[in-house]
Amino acid sequence: MKAYTYLAKGKFAFTEKPKPRVLGDRDAVVRVTLASICTSDLHIRHGSVPRAVPGIAVGHEMVGVVEEAGAAVPFARGDRVAVNVETFCGECFFCRRGYVNNCTDRDGGWALGCRIDGGQAEFVRVPFADMGLTKIPDGVSDEQALFVGDILATGYWAADIAEIGKGDAVLVIGAGPTGICAMLCARLKSSARVIVCEKDPVRLRFVREHYPDVLTVAPEDAAAFVREHSGHGGADAVIEAAGTAESFRLGWECARPNAVVVVAALYDAPQMLPLPDMYGKNLTFKTGGVDGCKCGEIMRLVAEGKIDTTPLITHTFAFSELDRAYDLFERRADGVMKVAVKM
Ligand SMILES: [Zn+2]
Ligand SMILES: [Zn+2]
What we know:
CATH architecture of the largest domain: Alpha-Beta Complex
Shape: globular
Distance between the termini: 12 Å
CATH topology of the largest domain: Quinone Oxidoreductase, Chain A, domain 1
Helix content: 25-40%
Bound molecules: zinc ion
CATH superfamily of the largest domain: Medium-chain alcohol dehydrogenases, catalytic domain
Number of helices: 12
């Protein structure tokens, strides 16, 4: 089969690989029908993911059709499924508490398209498929389900741990794909008022066009704007999804006292917590990588029409055009948010 492969730092290319097979009871092989490119794929290509194993097929955002399922996997050949970015055993200390990102199994965590072959390929073997596949209901298209297992799971998780209450003002920093997913999920939390802060005018316009109920602001105006549009001197909850020094600082600056600040972004460099400046604000910081174990709930919300991420798919390519798709995505050309790759 054809697979888009991490050959060496700076180099991805198509290679021929044997079609994967089920190796254990909890494995499934999925025929990929639609895939996407994630910023993490770019990090692998740049050589900034030390765990990434040269020679693996990349890609960890995909939906497809079950081709073959192990005995313990409650899916049958032909079932349409969304694949979770994380593989997790469901049994270890962390999995039992819902912290599946920290699964201690050898295949646990982000393995697909990083340490083992991923889904920018015709077929992918999914370990722990009994935990990591989500059935796509009839009436939900591949496009609607494409982000359930990765960026939407991240947005959902971030909104969930932000402890958003009824009527709260929520600040989401960053209107990239993950920030928009977080915003969509924060919007569902009762009557929360959501403010999106973003420095790229193209992305701000994207939010205003597609989600007119959401307030938008540029970083330089954020502190005053958030104060004005929240009840208690700042946001009741903050989700930082931009990943710069400025956005990190805005996160705690725009929060009201005793707020929760969720740091969902990934940074290139360490960030400073100037504790004397924030003394008395009594903030709660939550950091990290997604615990993607609520994909069933997310898929239900998609099916009910409460979450729609299809506007994020700004460009669609054929599998054979992946080089071009990566190039466009990396350069953020032509207003791209996410690409969909038809297999
Ligand atoms: Zn990703
Ligand atoms: Zn585990």
